[in-house]
Amino acid sequence: MSTDSKRTDPARGPLFTKPFIVLLFLSLAGLFFIGVRFVKGIGAVSNLSDGYPWGIWVAYDVAIGTAVTCGGFAVALLSYLMHRGAYHSLVKSAILTSLFGAFLAASSIVVEIGRPWNAHGFFAPTSWQPNSAFFELTLCAAGYLVAEVIEYLPAIVPMLGRGNPTSLRTLLFNFLKARGMVRVSPESGAVPTGLLRCRINQLLILIALAGIVLPTMHQSALGSLMLIASTKLHPLWHGPFLPLLFLINCIYIGYAIVVFESILASFVQARPFRSADLAAAAALIPWLSGAWLVVRLGDLVNRGQIEAVFHGDFYSAFFLAECLLMTIGSAPLFNRRKRQSPRRLFISASMMLLGGGLYRFNVYLIGFNPGNGWHYFPSFAEVTISAGIVSLEILIYQVLIKLLPPIPAERAGY
C-alpha cells in the first residue's frame, strides 16, 4: 500500500471502544467540577491564593497547551515557507491537533478567570491595554484559534449534503450547490468546484500567513509575561531571553507533537507510517533544540548563574531533568537512519514533548516562589478538571477523525 498525500479519508474502526468509555468518564467528572466551580466559586475547587493566582490550569493547560497548538504553525513553516509541498500530507492532522490545543487553552482560561462576568471587557476596545503582554497573548491566541478553525473548514465540505434534508449542513450544501461552488461525487460526497476551491485557496493563503505570524507573537508573549515575575522566578529560569526561549521551544514541540500524533494514529488505525515526511520534520528538531540549549546555557553563563545548575537542590533537579530529556531525545535525530525508524521517532518525539513541556511547567509553577508563607499544591478537583478537559479534547478528536478526513487516504500501490 502507498499513501496518497493529496486525498484524505476518515479513520477506520469502531467509535465506542474501552478507551473511549474511560475518556468519557473523565470528561464527565471534569465537567461536574467545572459546574461546581461556576456555581460555588473558584475557591470551592482550587487551592489558588493571592500568592499563587494561577496553578496547573495555566502552567499545564495554557502554557503547555498553547505549545501543542504550534504543530500547525511548525508544519506550515515546513510546507509553505520552505516550499516543501511534498509534506502537505502532514498539514491537516497538524491543524486538527493545533485546533484542539487552542480550545484546551481557551477552555482553561475561562475556568481559571476569577471573575468570568468581567471577561466581556476583552471584546471592548476601550478596555484594552496594548502595552500588556497578557493582552498580546490573549489577542494573538484568540486570533490563532480562529485561523485554525478556518484552515480546517475544507475538511468539512465532504460532509455537506448528507443526512436529513432540513439539517443545517444540507441547507448549506444546497446553498453552495446553487451557486456552483460544490458538486456531488458518488465516491466522496460533496466536492468543491473550481470556483469554491479558488476562493478557499485565496482565503487560506492569508489564513496560513496569520497562522504563522500569530504564534510567534503569543508564544514570545508567554515568555514576556514571566519577565515581570523578577525575583519571584528562580534565576535558573528567569532571564532576558525568556521570549526567545519560549518561541524556539514552541517550534520544536510543534514538530514533536506532529511526529507523535501521526505515528500513534497510524499505529492505532493500522495504516502505513509516513516515515519520509515525518523524518523531514524530525530532522529540524535537534537543530532547534540545540539552538535552544545554546541560548539557555549562554544566558546562565552571562548572568553568572551556571553554578546553580549543580547545587543539587530541588530546582537544579528539575532543570537537569528538562535538559536531559531534550538532549537524549533530540541527539539520535541527527542520524538519518534513525529518523527512518517509526519506533525511534516516537521515542524521541515523546522525550521532546516531556522535556519541552517540563521547561514551561518549571517556568510557570516549579520555579515560581512568591515568598514565605505561600504554598501551592493542586487540589483533586483542579487535577480532575484538567484531566477532564484533555479527555474531552481527545474524545472530540476521535469523533472527528471517524467522520472527517484528516488522515491521508490509502490507494493500491505497487
Automatic annotation (TrEMBL):
The chain crosses the membrane at residues 20-39, 59-82, 94-113, 133-153, 203-229, 241-264, 276-294, 314-334, 346-367, 379-401. Keywords: Cell membrane, Membrane, Transmembrane, Transmembrane helix. It holds the Pfam family NrfD. GO terms for biological process: anaerobic respiration. It is found in: Cell membrane. One of its GO terms (cellular component) is plasma membrane. It is a multi-pass membrane protein. Coiled coil: none annotated. Its main location: membrane. Signal peptide: none annotated. InterPro entries: FDH_cytochrome_b556_subunit, NrfD-like. Belongs to the NrfD family. NCBIfam families: PRK10881.1. This is Periplasmically oriented, membrane-bound [NiFe]-hydrogenase, cytochrome b subunit. It comes from Citrifermentans bemidjiense (strain ATCC BAA-1014 / DSM 16622 / JCM 12645 / Bem). The lineage of its organism: Bacteria, Pseudomonadati, Thermodesulfobacteriota, Desulfuromonadia, Geobacterales.
